[in-house]
Amino acid sequence: MTSELYRVCNSAAHQLGWYNELEFLNNDDSELDEEQEKSPLIKALSSEEQMVAIPPFVVYRIDRSILFSKQLDTERRNLENQSGQLDEVAEMIMIKKGFAGSKKSPVGRVLCSSLSRISETYSLTIQINERASTKYDSTNPIHEQKLLKLWNALMPETELESRLTRQWAEIGFQGNDPATDFRGMGLQGLDDLIYYATTHTDSAQRTFSSSRHPVSWYPFAIVGINITQCAVQALRTRQLQYYLYKYGANKKTYSEFYCYLYHKFNDFWISHQEPKLTVMDFEMKFKEFKIQMNKELTTHQTMPLVEWLEKKRIEQQNLEKENRKVIEEEEEEEEEEKNNI
Description:
Blueprint: H1 4-15, H2 21-25, H3 29-38, H4 40-43, H5 47-53, H6 56-67, H7 73-81, H8 86-96, H9 106-132, H10 141-154, H11 186-199, H12 201-211, H13 220-236, H14 241-247, H15 251-270, H16 282-298, H17 305-340
Helix pairs in contact: 1-6, 1-9, 5-9, 6-9, 6-14, 8-9, 9-11, 10-11, 11-12, 11-13, 12-15, 13-15, 15-16
Protein name: ELMO domain-containing protein
Organism: Circinella minor
Domain ELMO: 142-297
């Protein structure tokens, strides 16, 4: 009886056209090498191309199978801790889960390529965790330069009077020294704010402007750090897996997820018009927002902000085109009525 993990890999190999199962099941490694030489579908793909070729939902299912398998607890920990070679992890999984063939077989290639992508997500988590645990150091000139970069990105026309000043409250910090606000998320909180403010300038400025509304204001920087906590939590709890398999497990993709969250939060916040929200509503509404985002993650609707903005731009273009078409049709009807009179 084959395992679920084997069936997932085997089905993917067939769907990708990588092999005819019956030709490979009874071959030894030397025969496999000969078969691979004859197979243009396998031979033409590099290991990197094979990784990309495997659909995100397949990698996601393989990830879930490993995550929830008690039998593969050691292999999962090796992936998580980045200890041991991927080849060794793959071999043990294939033995424990009764894979036919070797790592060179198409079913083995699906597993190995998927493990590479799964490993990348653990590597990203380690990187982000290290950044989040790195405390802001006001004696470190690099840290100080980054903080000033955030100010200049949000307030380009206003000069900072001094390092310790109430001006920091204008961009949403709590006191005279922003360093104290980064305690929870370390430098990752600052990195995320800078990426948003400098990469998605229009969105960030719109969000920043909304945060300064006389009634429905909220502390931009502090909320941004809360958004970082949400993003990092999604990464740590592996809620972000499908998103990473679809768009890539790297820092930029993570940063785009952060920006997506902040953009969506601002839309959520300003959508409440009657009555407008106040900062006193933040805790309750932020919980509601997190529930909404968890649903998006569960249903795989989340996307990088850059893609979401492009999607909205196209939708707006199509809407304007439809509106113009309606207007033109109405004008033609009016003209026709005039001619008939």
